[in-house]
Amino acid sequence: MNESVIVALVAGPLSAVLTLLLAKALGSRRDKAEVDALLSERWEAWSEHQDKRIATLEDKVRGLESDLSSAQEKNRAQQSLMSSLIGWALQLRDEVIRLGGHPPAAPPEVQAALTSLDPI
User: Fold this and answer.
1) Are 109 and 82 in contact (CB under 8 A)?
2) Residue 92 near residue 86 (C-beta atoms within 8 A)
3) Which of 28, 35, 67, 104 is the most exposed place for a label (fewest CB within 10 A)?
4) Contact 82, 120 (CB under 8 A)
5) How does pLDDT run across 72-102, given as a tens digit for each residue?
6) How many domains in the chain?
7) Residue 33, CB half-sphere, CA atoms under 13 Å: how many?
8) pTM listed for this prediction
């Protein structure tokens, strides 16, 4: 066989294989870079979404804490009023008895409050 035919037979497939390997290696790097960029983009979008959700929830919690604080203050004021009313009712009852009167029995709800309400 002719030397140029042998070179052509060796170089042809060898260059094709070399070209294929280089293309695959470079394409693989490009594909990995594209996947990394896509994942990074999606991660950032998810992170921003979570940041917004967290901010919304924190705002709601602040609102609920404010509402709770207001309700607790109102409850303390009502407990103070109830304690004062019960003390006043007891004084009136004692005065009626001292003057010889007979006060009516306290309703069950009032009697329960007289025995269970903590003084402030």
Assistant:
1) no
2) no
3) 104
4) no
5) 999 999 888 888 888 888 899 899 999 999 9
6) 1
7) 6
8) 0.49
